[in-house]
Write a structure and sequence with these properties.
With 142 residues, this protein is mainly alpha-helical. Helices cover 48% and strands 10% of the residues. A hairpin with a 2-residue loop joins β2 and β3.
Length: 142
């Protein structure tokens, strides 16, 4: 399991819902909370999260109850304790229009990485580092 978890998308929403339910919840209970996906998509996401050791399941009275692993619960609590995201990132999250996708490869996932890379580049340049930009011209062979 990775120490850096994504904060956006369907998996992040599922983790947040399960964090509030230490006793766990069924897929139908999670779907009833208003998560924006179908039951099939939710079950697929839970299956992938199970394979990634983020959630566990127990079967009681014929219903599969999903809950966060202890390691994921600790990691999620650590994420909550971190500083709030920058205003620009928060504004993007509060857009009224949907981005059109709840997949794990949405633009929102990459925002934090872009900000981190921009900060690393800025620090590099402050220390006097330079970046050589190579030409983009394509040469045709004769």
């Amino acid at each position: 399991m990775t120490a850096k978890i994504q904060r956006h998308g369907r998996a992040a929403a599922i983790r947040a819902l399960l964090l509030d339910r230490p006793a766990g919840a069924t897929a139908k209970q999670l779907l009833a909370t208003g998560i924006d996906c179908t039951l099939k998509q939710l079950k697929n996401s839970l299956g992938v999260m199970f394979d990634a050791d983020q959630v566990r399941a127990s079967t009681t009275t014929g219903n599969k109850v999903w809950f966060l692993t202890i390691a994921m619960r600790k990691l999620m609590r650590g994420v909550e304790d971190q500083a709030a995201p920058p205003v620009a990132a928060t504004a993007r999250l509060e857009r009224s229009k949907s981005t059109g996708s709840n997949n794990s490869n949405t633009v929102l996932h990459k925002d934090q990485e872009r900000q981190e890379l921009a900060q690393l580049l800025a620090d590099f340049r402050k220390r006097g580092g330079t970046i050589q930009v190579l030409g983009t011209k394509l040469f045709a062979r004769a």
